[in-house]
Amino acid sequence: MTRKRKKKASKGIANLSQTILNILRKERNKTFNYKQIAAILNVNDASSRNQIIKKLQLLLSKKEIEEVERGKFKAVVTTEYHTGILDLTSKGSGYVICDDFDDDIYIASNNVNKALNGDEVELYVYKRRKHGKLEGEITNIIKRAKSEYVGVIQLSKNYAFVVVDGNKMYKDIFVPINKVNGAEDGDKVLVSLEDWPDKADSPNGKILKVLGKPGEHNTEIHAILADYGLPYEFPTEVEEFANNIDTSINDEEIKKRRDMRKVLTFTIDPKDAKDFDDALSFQVLDNGNYEIGIHIADVSHYVQEGTILDEEAYERATSVYLVDRVVPMLPEILSNNACSLRPHEEKFTFSAVFELNNKAQVVNEWFGRTVTYSDARFAYEEAQAIIESKTNTIPAEVSLTGDTYLADQAIADAVLKLDELAKIMRSKRMRAGAISFDKVEVKFNLDEDNNPIGVFFKTSADANKLIEEFMLLANRKVSEFVGKQKPEKTFVYRVHDEPDESKLHALQNVVSKFGYKLNFKDRKSTTASLNGLLSDVVGKKEQNLVDTLAIRTMSKAEYTTHNIGHYGLAFDYYSHFTSPIRRYPDVMAHRLLQQYLDGGKSANEAIYEEKCKHSSNMEYLATKAERDSIKYMQIRFMQDHEDEEFLGVISGVTDWGIYVEIIDNKCEGMVRIRDIKDDYYEFDESQFAIIGRESKNMYQLGDEVIVKVKDTDLVKKHLDFNLIGKPN
Fold first, then answer.
1. Are strands 159-164 and 173-176 parallel, antiparallel or unpaired?
2. Which of the residues 139, 304, 476, 717 has the least number of beta carbons within 10 Å of its own beta carbon?
3. Diameter over CA atoms, the chain
4. Could you tell me which residue ranges the S1 motif domain spans (predicted)?
5. 279-336 pLDDT, tens digit each
């Protein structure tokens, strides 16, 4: 045998040892005999099996494996393994976020071992030789983050590949020709990841659905929903089930409820709302106090546990609000009709009724099922007109009818009194340490083909805050009523943890560039200085940037059965009770409250905690889909303005470029460093800036700059700008 062939043979033997070891380590809680290993390696000849037996004996002598019982082997585990979530970069390397370590663990691309972005993984950790920093290798995939991806199909004669949207999927998905499901070359598709064989370079998949041609409006909206696993239509059997529900307001059911049909009741909602979750009732009592009812659609009366309708609502967990449509949690027969508290209709409601005095203190409370009748429907703008003019005149420019009209005087009086009480409650809340986030929302005016023809900003006026305060009151008091019961009862809380200290200090670093100072000495000073900051930036060029960064310092609110209070609202008890048409946790809160009002025993905590986790996760996905749809519409809007120059603010700085948000329309795009030609620019992390090597010219976070559209990519949702310079 030549020296060269000897070397090759020994390498093959070593490889076999390593392969066997990898098999045993991957399934280190199982035992394997030589036949099972041969089957995994797909060999069945005598020579190969003898090689496996020899290698097993060799590994046994090295104490790398152990013989648990005759002929059955198991890996000897000397390494401590950890678990975490993989966050991939666009280059194919990544970081594992792991509770066992303060810092994220770097994973080189050759150690990712077929894990994908968001997967729950097992890894072992070692110190990097060069810098002594921690690095890891993924040893096992515990749970895939997702099994369905959106991408564009590239068809060949005998097979296809799907190029997945986004930059965090480092492999195309291989699809056999018999699994392309009628897709044509270049179609945008939803592909299911089926398996990833050990020796295969790419994962295998099959096409589940053809979404359409890339760049077309409906294709891209459906792609956003599909990418997050969100549905855009109801199964036929669910629609049929909902259509067959008895939605009549019958006497038999009325007798079981508190009849409040004769009490003055009205709704205040956005002018384009179709589902009215909540109504307010108002009456002055003989003792001079006010009885205020917060009446919520009694969704749990129609959506009964154990039905296919309930299962579908639970799976969805939330309505999804995209720029051009709502994907509802409940079929239209319920969301827009039976459950919607429409004017001049009797409805079954679940109510929280409070007696308040002139200082907005709650003197009495009552919770239970009711029947109500809405006397009127107002848009926020109409209620705002009453608050501002202190009259019952609704001017034509804000009227839902388009004509000036006089609202019922009793309702106008009620709105003014409710506004007065809401302002007292809000001020009390702020003094207690609540944080006031009034972030500007971007909205689009769309034509009949869903083309964006204008951008406007939605802000919160007194009428919005009036409704908000009474919804907060109901949510707080319902959860307090259950939470204070002894023995303790299972309930669905909406909790919000304290902000992360390191994020607060990062915020301080950024806002100091604009001359703002924060004080984090204790909770009171933290909330006071955050509120001061949010108030000081109103109307300034840095407002949106500061608002966004301040929100990012906050923990994420979530649903749980373990109450820790709500930091942002400064409430010890808080739940979601007021929007059951669009949120499943509110349906759960209704059911639990009724169970306890009926004297029932505490519900199973483990079951409800699992439902809370699912609801929090679906809310997170819906929020991401909503943001993606806004980004998509912003890019469509900017396609029609490619020749214009815009004034923007630098909203982010990285080593590859600067992000710029246009002041007039809040569209954000990127100026890549390589596209700035007047100098060679370098990223200075400490100053949140890029600085020209020769000119020392600086572009810093918060600076105003003039930009022009360079490129718009609807499919990848990228908006690139060319930098013109700073305004004179």
1. antiparallel
2. 304
3. 109
4. 643-724
5. 999 999 999 999 999 999 999 999 999 999 999 999 999 999 999 999 999 999 999 9
Which helix H or strand E contains 134, and what residues bound it? strand 134-143
At 705 the pLDDT is 95
In a 10 Å sphere around its CB, with 0-12 CB exposed, 13-18 middle and 19+ buried, how is residue 660 labelled? buried
Q: Which fold has domain 641-725?
A: OB fold (Dihydrolipoamide Acetyltransferase, E2P) (2.40.50)
Q: Is residue 161 a contact partner of residue 149, using CB atoms and an 8 Å limit? A: no
- How far is it, in rounded angstroms, from Cα 682 to Cα 673? 8
Residue among 671, 426, 698, 653 at smallest CA distance from 545: 653
Average pLDDT over residues 457-473: 94
Cα–Cα distance, 372 to 279 (Å, whole number): 9
Residue of 195, 80, 193 lying closest to 137 (CA atoms):
80
515-557 pLDDT per residue, tens: 899 888 888 888 888 988 988 888 787 777 788 788 888 889 9
Q: How far apart are CA 490 and CA 482, in angstroms?
A: 8
Q: What is the rounded distance in angstroms from the CA atom of residue 603 to the CA atom of residue 497? A: 25
Please, which pLDDT band fits residue 101 given cuts at 50, 70 and 90?
confident
What does the alpha-carbon distance between residue 176 and residue 347 come to, in Å, rounded to a whole number?
A: 54
- 440 DSSP 8-state letter: P
User: What is the SS3 string spanning 254-319?
Assistant: HCCCEECCCCCEEEEECCCCCCCCEEEEEEECCCCCEEEEEEEECHHHHCCCCCHHHHHHHHHCEC
Task: Kindly report the pTM of this predicted structure.
Answer: 0.85
Reported as a single tens digit per residue, the pLDDT across 182-217 is: 999 999 999 999 999 888 899 999 999 999 999 899
Residue 246 CA to residue 348 CA, distance in Å, equals: 12
Pairing of strands 188-195, 204-212: antiparallel
Tokens of 578: 């007021």
pLDDT in tens, 713-728: 887 788 999 999 999 8
**C-alpha distances in Å from residue 95, one per residue of 89, 192, 215, 455:** 8, 25, 32, 38
Q: Right CATH number for 16-75 from 2.60.120.200, 2.60.120.280, 1.10.10.10, 3.40.50.11290?
A: 1.10.10.10
Tokens 């933290």 belong to which residue?
Answer: 526
* CATH number of the 81-143 domain: 2.40.50.690
End-to-end CA distance of the chain: give it in Å, rounded: 80
Average pLDDT over residues 168-195: 95
Task: Report the Cα 712 to chain-centroid distance in Å.
Answer: 25
